[in-house]
Fold:
Amino acid sequence: MFKQFLLFAFISFSFVVNNYSQQASDKQIQVGLDKIYNFNWDEGFRIFNSIIKKNPTDPRGYHYKSIIFLWHYLGNLNEVYLDSFTYFSDKAIELTEVKGKQKPSAELSYLLGSIYYNKSIAEARSGNYLQALWTSNQMKSNLEDAVKIKPDFYDAYLGLGLYNFALSQIPSTLEWAANLVGITADKELGLDYVKKTTQKGKLSKVDAQYYLSQLYARVIVDHPAAKEILNNLVRRYPKNLLFNFSLAWVEFELNELSNSEKHIRFVINSNDQLYPFVSSNSNYLLGNVFFARNQFDSARVYYQNYIKTAINDDYKGFANFRIGLCYELNGNRKEAVKYYEKSDDGNTDIEEDLYAERKGKELEDKKLSSNDMRLIKITNLIKQNKLDAAKDSLENYIEQNKINNDQKAEAIFHLCEVTYKQRQYGKALEYAVECIKTTVERERWVHAYAHYFGAWISYNQKKFIDSELFLLQIEGIGEFDFRNSLENKIYTLQRLLPKNSKK
Structure:
């Protein structure tokens, strides 16, 4: 989670500093930022080059120019951009430190913290996580200095907030390094700080809004809140591919398939060359959209496009697995096996790829049964928001087919999901309990997620102790697919539970 959080949707937006010198220069910076937020890179370069030319000892011109190179590097991993980013950010550090020795200020401490933040992102993207930890600590130290001097410097709280949030989820393999440099972090404090910048920040407000949308989307799991923020950002910066892709991802999670497709196609049709990361991932997401619609030929095409254009191994295993499913669901077992064999091509840090590796190995030797195929198509009705049709089909599936326990448990779980979405909490709880009581051999995630839904149902019934008990039972299940994702969802519910229910 730590690495994914540092890099989600490239984590590329910078912090900005205000009131450092002339008001006119601040306005220039805002105009430059608006240009690059809207992916108008040439105008951004022109404005920041103008700042450097007018005042070659002002570190801000170099800092903001370095940001453009960082975004390009994060978008395509071309080390030429990384070299340029390093050159200009190092120049900004040098000039900032000179001015700081002459006359320390909150603005200079903030600028230095901002530069170190960007350097930590570049180091993390390069896989140098230990160096990224050290640089993050440099960022924190400088931003804390800024806040000490000027407590109402609200832009500085964004960096401190992201630091606390990300480092609170550091993996055990890096805990020794965190202890070595004295890193401590508080997730809730981090969220409060990000919100503070969103509400009261100045030039960094857009950055804070985007980051908050990603926290809501990927960690807090409040997709409606994320969508509201992203809708506003897309309206303001319609050409920003990252904002459009992030909105499409949230809309897919909300089962708004048509809206998601609209924003995905905008990204794909832009034919952007600087950001193959966003473009390739848009193909992957559009594959998911078509798969959810049971349009397997179309889904296969976009998954294949993703594999051809991907700049790393992320989701390649899952894409290959899904291509295999598309072939087999359309009756081509021979081609399906070829892709099941490639289901281990992904990134083992990603849950989808781990799941694909496990299921791909199973399906290499064991073909999908007609019941398996039918269950996939039925559960896709839920993604299409056809809840009544899904409910009727699932009930019929259980009653009229000879199915094994794993299939039965999964079907009952989806009945729980449907009735929960329909706010039929009594019936949903019955399905959750029935699912939990159904013995499974391989699909242990079904029991874990049934407990999770049981917790939400109990919460909505104001049975808070029952809700906490459901959550506690998940800890004893052991390993299962998508555990980290579920832990984020659990965190969301635990934040809502009254404190006295957790005693």
